[in-house]
Fold this protein.
Amino acid sequence: MMTLTVAHYLNVFQLKKAMMEEGTTTPSAEGREFVARLAKCLGELDPSLPCDVSTGTDSDNNTWLAYTVDGVVIARADLGRDVG
């Protein structure tokens, strides 16, 4: 499995943020806030650090997504109930 870096995700989320600002995409207010917060946080980190993304469900079967750098969760999104 390939380990992706802070630089990779920073590029992804800067592009997502630019697309939102240009009106190319129109995510929810929560989605906009998450993208902006994650892009800002990633921009403050060493770009060569590995960044892991994990998903899971809580005890209420709600799905979450977390970005982790150096063992610290830098951002987490609660995606709601898994309808699968």
The mean pLDDT is 90.
